[in-house]
Amino acid sequence: MMKLAVVLMIVGAMQVSATGFSQNVTLAERNAPLEAVFKKIEQQTGFYFWYESKTLQGARKVSLDLRQTPIRDALNLCLAGQPFSYTIIDKTIIINDAGKQEWGDQHVAPPVVNISGVVVDEHGGPLEGAAIGLKGTTRGTNTNKNGHFSLQASSVSGILVVSYLGMVTQEVSFTGEKELRIVLIRNVMEKQEIVVVGYGTQKKQAITGSVASANLKLYQNVPVNNILETAKGIVPGLNIGGVSKAGEVASISVRGENTMRSGTAPLIVVDGAIFRGSLNDIPPTDVESFTVLKDASAAAVYGSRSANGVILIETKRGTGINGKPKFNVNVGYGAVNEQQRLRVYDEKGYLQRVLDYRDANGLTADPNNIAAYLQPIEATNYNATSDHQATLKDPYNLFRQTGQSLNATASVSNRTDKTEYYISGNVIKQKGVIKNDLYNHYSLRVKLSSDLTNWFRLGINAYYSLKDYPGATIYGISGGGSPSSPYQFSPYASLIGQDGKYLQFPQTTTSFNSPYWQIPDQVYNRQNNLNGIVTATIKVPWVEGLSYNLTTSITQNWNERGSFYGPQTVTGLPKNGSGDVYYDRNTYVLIDQLVKYNKTIGDHSFDATLLYSTEDYKLFSQSSHGENFADPTLGIYGLSTGQTQTVNTGGTKSAAVGEMARLTYSFKNKYSLTGTVRRDGYSAFSENHKYGVFSSAGANWQLSQERFMRHATFIDNLALRASYGTNGNQSISPYGTLARMGNSFYFYNGTSFVTTSFVNNLGNNELKWEYTQGINLGIDFAVFGNRISGAIDWYDKTTRNLIFPLSMPSTSGFTTISTNLGKIGNKGIEVNLNTVNVKSKTFTWSSNIAFARNWNKLITAYGPDLKTGIEPDRPSDNLFIGKTLGTIYDYQVTGMWQQADKDNGGIMTGMLPGTYKLLDVNNDGKITSDKDRVFLGDTKPACTWGFTNTFRYKDLSLMVYVYSMWGGNGHFLSGSNTPYNDGFANNPSINHIVYDYWTPANSGAVFPRLNYQTAAAYKGVKYFDRSFIKVQKIALTYNLTTLAKRYGINDMSCSLSADNLFTYAPHWIGLDPETNSGLTDGSIPTLRTIMAVFTFNF
């Protein structure tokens, strides 16, 4: 005892503040000596072990997998089944023989209950060596080779802590059961351990490329209508646009624009198979993981599809409790309205605008005679009351509604020793803010897999969805109408005539049709998606680690839409009705055959994957049109009665084949190398260029596992990554390299004609694949007990052989030909930072910051001029060498010409007071397009970032998510280069969105005079910075599990959230700068949603 006391005095004198150490332990050990485990605990926690050297002589080796486990629970698991006990005094852990009581109170009540059971994996296989600890005590044991354990406890109830390397540690309650069956789930989705990659999973420390995952736990009980909401602002480099209509699909891109004409959307892979539907088809509650492959090394396994990145989605699998089904119900309901609305002039502002317009055009503008300047209908309504009250106070309200959103999901799942299933149904009903903007979505998923033998596993994954857009809005059947029309109503318009019908021209002027005359009488638009995936996995019994996987995916989409415009519509009036019906059906068959082999020999690990893939795609379409109906009553169901009828049919077929090999080698789990090569063939290319080869190589160095880092105890993880590779893009039409024929008529004898055929599109047998090659350098880190973690990536990539329509001389008889030309470069930096700012027993505050900066430029287009050797810009195609694809090349506005400039003779020839002053670049006294335009920035944002904070107090949690975009310019009103020159802006009989235009009395206005189009040089547009900070989501969740268990419900929570709550854009004029980059008079406002969600698990 004296010896022990002396040691304790020395140790106590050496103690310093331990606030820099963690009270939790993270370990992953397999058959490690107990003493070595003790040393690692000392390094992480600041605790010190004391024991006599002979004490550990009989210690057994330890296998553990702990993640931020409290130190007492970690010690219990370390000593489970060992002949030792421990005592903690201050920062010292004393290890004694189990029966020895040298220090403190080590008395344990005699055991009275025997707890026994078996520990198995998710497939029913026994787990040998699993650590079993009785929580709150030092008792524990390990499972035998059959996974069986037996443990004595002093009470009939308690909690067992069960741990096994590579599995999720579980706490299992017992209440007197004779035999427990404990199923440990492999840690396949844990971000710090196993990561979902193309055609499988990989250990985090073996990842060589740039792979990022959305933290779905943030949205576990938070209202989400689309799975993309969980990744926006969370995954750096993933750009997701906003939505403003019911059922609208957001735009997606990864790491900038890699192509000019082929589209920038990434490849979507769901449950291992290429997905041919919309991400709106997948209910968020069905998703288990959402992973983005961003660089060549990570995405190279998908070859010709991966230049724009790859999104991997894994849907949920069966789970259950002791073989009992698990039921989940999630119901959300909310209100939808506009985040912001544009204002139109009231009667006073409208009348003033009429006078200002006349004055600007040199016409009389007498306020006392204003009725004479109005249209007849307007004048009648103006004179109808003595105070000239408007007949339409807020015309926009005529076409708006308070939107609604309903999202309900129910699922049942289960897992037994050999079989698991997951079945879910989802219903989404949305009403947009424009009348009849409706969206209904119904889906059903059935996912089943079973071990038919110990070496053969069969899985079936079936999914069906129906998207229905049943509303007839002012946008027409496909959103092609003009949403600006509600803003054009004069305050003195008349909607309905004396016959009780809507007037076509509510303001007399024929330049404005009533929006009611733009709405079709009938409309339907239904999109069906049916997908079935069958997987068969064979583990070759006589070769450990060798398996064969066959995946067959069949997807069929069929779409049907129709519209009918009766005689009381603008479209149907001149044709006495006009109707269209369209139908298409496409079938996509994918067959993937995978051979996988993994082997560990000492410190060397090998993981090899071979793939052979085939794809077939078929499309059939049919459209019918009818007009001039004697009786249009039948609408789209009577197209055959039209005097004019046309029927068109079409179809396409394409096929693809792919072969891929990937090898990953790891040494001591510290050094990893990955090499991938893929060869793709696509039927759309010519015989000489039908195949493309894409490859990549990458390395990962786990720096934190090096011996020279062992004293940096504050570092939990530090890894360096580097990769280089090529990807491809096959986004051309199935017959894009072939010449195509068209039909026409040849007239002869003045009246007779014959049908003729001619080549209307040139083919190009030399058209090649687009290639993107790039490098990625990254660092992963975690420090201070994982309180701060994240990743930093830098990338530089170049796309060549761009598929582009090259202009042809007019003498050729053709306008363009598809060819390969030019290069585009993209480089950037991405930062993802996770922090745990405050953590206590009852309160936690954690944050996530995701930042992305992209530099995009056109390296070359058509090549250098043969005479000068310098490549010229192509302003007509908006292509500028060394500039971004979104470069703004226009006249620079330096001010506004004023009346004083005209009076003193200083105004430029052809200009008027109230028109923009433009920079005269060459000082020749005139403004010309070839000499006076300059670069004015970029339409694309310079960078984006998201900042998410989550606060948890007991059962209450609050999430606040802020999203921001910096840079990117746009202009106000219409999309033309002269936005104040169209009839809308300058027609005095049409109302307008309120904007600050120039008059002699308002000389400091932002925008020019109303008759700007009459100036000799009506050039120039004022651009505004679109930078903004948006409160994207606030969600408050309350966990009611304690209350729910009284009623037999395992888990229950309720949430209240607000989306698109507020946007701060100090320099922008108009609607949401995120979704409306310039065209705001014809844009739909961004939707704000307030939603409540209830979740039950039982």
From TrEMBL:
Query: What InterPro entries does its record include?
Result: Beta-barrel_TonB_sf (IPR036942), CarboxyPept-like_regulatory (IPR008969), Plug_dom (IPR012910), Plug_dom_sf (IPR037066), Secretin/TonB_short_N (IPR011662), TonB-dep_OMP_SusC/RagA (IPR023996), TonB-dep_OMP_SusC/RagA_CS (IPR023997), TonB-dep_rcpt-like (IPR039426)
Cited SUPFAM superfamilies: Carboxypeptidase regulatory domain-like (SSF49464), Porins (SSF56935)
Annotated Secretin/TonB short N-terminal domain ranges read: 51-95
Q: Which UniProt keywords apply?
A: Cell outer membrane, Membrane, Signal, Transmembrane, Transmembrane beta strand, Transport
Q: Which domain of life is it from?
A: Bacteria
User: Signal peptide span per the entry?
Assistant: 1-18
Predominant subcellular localization, coarse grouping: membrane
Topology versus the membrane, per the UniProt entry?
A: Multi-pass membrane protein
Q: Where in the cell is it found?
A: Cell outer membrane
> Which Gene3D superfamilies does the entry link to?
3.55.50.30, Carboxypeptidase-like, regulatory domain, TonB-dependent receptor, beta-barrel domain, TonB-dependent receptor, plug domain
UniProt keyword annotation of Ion transport present: no
**What Gene Ontology cellular-component terms does the record carry?**
cell outer membrane
Q: Which Pfam families does the protein's record reference?
A: CarbopepD_reg_2 (PF13715), Plug (PF07715), STN (PF07660)
**Residue ranges of every copy of the TonB-dependent receptor plug domain listed in the record:** 204-310
Family to which this protein belongs: Belongs to the TonB-dependent receptor family.
Descriptive protein name:
TonB-linked SusC/RagA family outer membrane protein
Q: Which organism is it from?
A: Chitinophaga polysaccharea
